Amino acid sequence: MSQENIEIVRAAIDGFNRRDWDSALTNAAPEVEVDNSRAARPNPGVYGLDQVRAYWDDVTDIWEWFRIEPHEFIEAGEYVVVSWTFHGVGRDGIEVQSRSTWTFTLRDGAIERVCMNQEWQEALEAAGVRE
Questions:
Q1: How far is the C-alpha of 125 from the C-alpha of 130, rounded, in Å?
Q2: pTM of the model
């Protein structure tokens, strides 16, 4: 199932990059949780498909253009850890790049939780991976 989980996460990122929320959430559980509590602009959590769509619509309003560039996928049982760079251009034309690591929790082929981590090691530890 490991490669399958990675492909599910990769497809969700591809859908997000196209701003195709239906595609990005195809394999999301109905009560999916997105935890941005560790972000520079923290959000305590977004729950459920409708809230995630609304949150992503807000992201779209902030950015003229954005894209996630994944660098590495690590599978650890029900977790997929992804390091990536966010590239964006704000509404005022300011370009931004930000690196972070995200931990996806999958069960039975569904994304149940996505958690943002500032550090690679922190994400690996959350997934139970020791380097």
A1: 7
A2: 0.89
